[in-house]
Each structure stands twice: as C-alpha cells, then as structure tokens.
Amino acid sequence: MKLADPQRCRSFPCYNYLLDIIYDHDFESMFTLIYSFMAVEVTGQRLGPIVHAINFGNCERIHEFHQKLYDPPANDAPLIEAIKITAAGEK
C-alpha cells in the first residue's frame, strides 16, 4: 500500500470515480471497489487497514503479494493474495 499523491490520480481509477466499497468487516479477508465501469475484488488477510486508507483517500495503489518478488510482510500486516478486475458488462 502506498499513500496517495493527488497529482498522480490522472492515470489510475481514483477516488473521484469510486462509488462504493464492499467490505468483509468480520474476517477482513475481502473487499470490492465499485466503479461505474468496473469492480475490483481484493482477497487476502488483515485487509482492514487498506480499506481504511482507501476510505480516507490515503492509498495510491495496491498490489498482490508474490513470494518471489517481495519479502513477506510482518505477521500482523495486511496481505493481498489476489486482485480480480471485472469490467462493466463482463460476467
């Protein structure tokens, strides 16, 4: 997770296009970002801090954890296992 820079929001779906966030409050294992043109489903572990950062406009980007590319996060840190993007009209 990287903190947002308002100037960089020109090339990514940013907060002004975000309609809603669907979040698994009980298990913190999934959230979906809803845009008019797509949905971004994120699954993982301990995702609460990421959802809160997005809600407050403080998250510039997210990415999946790949064991070969990144060091493992701390045991209590958020871990994104998968990101699925579905364009509007797709099933």
Tell me about the largest β-sheet. Answer: 4 strands, antiparallel
Order of strands, main sheet, comes to 1-2-3-4
- Average residue pLDDT: 87
**Cα Rg:** 13 Å
| Count of extended strands | 4
Strand content: 25-35%
What structural category characterises the helix and strand content? mainly beta
Low-confidence stretches: none
Query: Roughly how much helix do the residues carry, as a percent range?
Result: under 10%
| Gap between N and C termini | 28 Å
- The tally of helices reads 1
Question: How would you describe what is shown here?
Answer:
The chain has 91 residues and is mostly beta strands. Helices cover 9% and strands 32% of the residues. The protein has 1 helix and 4 strands. The chain has one helix at residues 48-55; strands spanning 18-23, 30-35, 38-45, 79-87. A 4-stranded antiparallel β-sheet has the order 1-2-3-4, with no helix packed on it.
